Amino acid sequence: MAPQDTADFPDAERCARRVLTLELADERATRPERAASAPPPVDHGALWRRLHRAPADPIDLATERALATHASWRAAYRSMLGTVALASSPVAAAASGGTGVHRRIGDYALRVDEATDAGPHIVSILIPQGVPVPHVLEILSDEGFAIRLDLGAPFGDTILLVLFPDNPTHAAVHAALRSPLSGLYLISGTTRNS
Amino acid sequence: MSSTTDDLDDIALVRGLPEAARTRLARALTGDQDGRHSGNPDLPLWIASRALLALAHLSPAADAPSARDLIETILSSTLARRGALSDRLTGRTAEVGGARLRAEATGLHLDLASGPFSLTWRQVTDALALIHFLMTADAALQWPDVTAALAPLVSPQAEAGPALSAATTALSAVRRRYEGLHFELEVARRRASALADHIFAARGGTHLEAPLADAEILAFWLAGLDSGTCIQFVTAAHHAVALERIRAEQRGRERLRATVTLDDPHTGTERARLPFADLAGSSHPDDASSIPAGIDRPPPAEDEMPWPEDLLDRLPEEPKVLTGREEATLRRLFLLHPLQHGRQRTVLRALSFGKVQNRHTARAQFGFDAPIPPPEPYPVVRAEHLKLRTGLTRILAEAYALRRQFAEPAGTDADADGDVQAPVLPKARPLRRASLADAPAARAAQFATFDETLASIAGCLDTFLPSRKTTPPGDEGFAEDAPIFLAAFDRLYRS
User: CB of B161 within 8 A of CB of B110?
Assistant: First the structure.
């Protein structure tokens, strides 16, 4: 029907907005109660605090558990990390060949030299000239855990990390770094104490 | 992309929002500002940027405002609780870019270059919930945009005025994008004009200004079933409500205009021909509705005559004088205003058969496996409202008795006619609600904060109850309607 036929119908825009609100209420009225098994709503405040946790701060176990269990928490955390990070690499761009792992994280280059015999794995992050020095590496594994590594001061233009295969935490970090599906995020001095 | 209702539920759970606050959040999102005042859907963002500027600079955590602390304040579920912000900030002052900021027990006060501006704590927590929603909806899709929008508010050197403008503009872009992704405003508009079209066709193009009749609303709904746009009967009734309210507003505006331009009939007719002027962009210079919804337009003054459902929002959250069930029943009823005037049957249909259709929809959409109750006969629905009214009378009687006892000084006129009201106090059984004070004096003070609102609510409820002038549809009306609705439901939900 042509618009002039509805000429007696004023201010369609405002009417439409009221209709939308009423429809949101109607939609809510038809919904069953939230199931007990439904994942808990994402507490962004807790994630935000985790994102800014100083090395010495206590760990909130409930947040860690929710992050490990629920994909919705991880998705939200990933978005938040992406805005805070100096550089990020949500997934590996290409499968790495040979024995080592190479990942580009923005301007930075991360490289894992595999252990030979009983020696440790060496992780190096190359910092090009003129870009800020990251302080934290956050690894978001596709298996559902998030690891936060405090990086030391760089050695010249390189940050070096040493991972011992017989240390279970180091082994987990190593496995996560090897997986092309883990997201890597480099964060600058976001901690209050730094 | 997650649905708006899901995201709203999550935010309400995390922040512990009561139902009324959730509704206010939904209205802020859809840009549904109080109908008669402002066509500016960005008004809540306008308020939010002021609240955030004050919070950023009054925060005790840091000497210099930081985006990180501000975001922590927005997301904090502990600060979302009533009174938490007030406890934390009351008494603090700050000065920034030509603006003086002050936190008091009642709320935030901003002395801006453009004039003073005050916010209640409820407005502040509402604003925080809105920004929290915009940041985190759709798995934090808009997080970067919102954090970028907050940047001017935490910059210590910035002039307050331009910073507020910049923040509001950026937040408004975010809200518009959310609207584009989630609310098909076009769909809502099409449905609204479908109702207008229906009336136009049904009335043969004449008497378009006459109020909608019960039969027309029912016919509109049934026609929707035929054309495959299956909607709830309650929603169809709500369409009618929206139409009626906007028309009432339009009439009021025209009456105002008529008094102004009495000596210029030509302009009057020209305006009458341009009902969509403000939508099409070709606005008449004098037309009040064609003022662009400017972002920096100050909020309108507090309205004198709120819509009935807004009355419920004006009741304080604490002490809670109505139970959740009472409030829900009243809200369901008040959302149908003004259909109770001459369209009692639609009201009863929506309440009685609407509940049944809700269950059908829940079962069809969510596999919700509860038995479907039979529709409540109209007299049963009415009896519930009468009971509610009796309850309100009791509360008001107690409030009145307490007020006479404590608020009025002894020896005044109150004593003279005291005999008339004397029996009220012993008769009124004290109301039992957890958050009401036990001591009569404290209780009187609590009642004093809301008894006017409560009286308006009771008055509004009265308009929904049968009066001597109207003969409401009773059992025989129900017997006529039941086959129509049950056949329609059978057609819709038979699987």
Answer: no
